[in-house]
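ARCHIVE CARD
SHELF: 3
SLOT: left
DATA:
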Amino acid sequence: MHQRKGIGAKLMECSLNELKDINALGCVLLGDPRYYSRFGFKAEESLVFPGVPSEYFQAILFSGVLPKGEVTYHESFYDQG
């Protein structure tokens, strides 16, 4: 009902701008590469999120050097129930 109106794109743009405003070096996410590539996200071989297909774990770098290694999310992202 509310898809294809640009709402998601605006939310992503605002989120990325907020991250840049707080001087974040970059961002990672788990999502559809066909959608998130338009914002500059891409799968990076040097970053691994275990248990998911590598093409769906993506990163964007704002400045600095892309880190290498295994990524974990904060425990609040996992099912607690």
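SLOT: right
DATA:
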Amino acid sequence: MSRIGNKPISVPTGVSFNIKENIVSVKGPKGNLSLSVHKNMNVKVQNENENSLVFVIRPNDSKENKSLHGLTRTLVFNMIEGVTQGFKKELEVNGVGYRVQKQGNKLNMNLGFSHPVVIYDTDDVKTQVEGSKIVVSGIDKQKVGQFAAIIRAKRPPEPYKGKGIKYANEIIKRKEGKAGKSSKG
């Protein structure tokens, strides 16, 4: 039994929630999002005075429907949270000579290569630079996470000195370097 799928989602004031033929659209102060829901899942809105509740209902207890139940509820919840508060991921750039600059809508990174690495902001995802930190923000949780992963992949952290781009809350397992020459004989 999906415990997450059974929880109702409260829609805050200032957010409009529409369902049309398995397409859920949410409009809020930060923007608009829409999602095509699986045909087995049924999304219903119940109005309680000013605060409306959204329920995701599954038709039966088959394995596929159980897995889709919690997923659908979480995706709808993330849409509502995205249009009201938004999402952000923080990355840290560590290393001697590694620099990050924001120039207009492009992120210019010097990461120890012979050339600078340039990544352009999209319409959905924006970046900001605060010293050696990169903040990726947007209203779609999946797009924010994917954009942050693309930036991190340009120079992932290495385990010996910790140089590279890492998430702010990521812990890098450190390895010991080469041991000194052992004298035999």
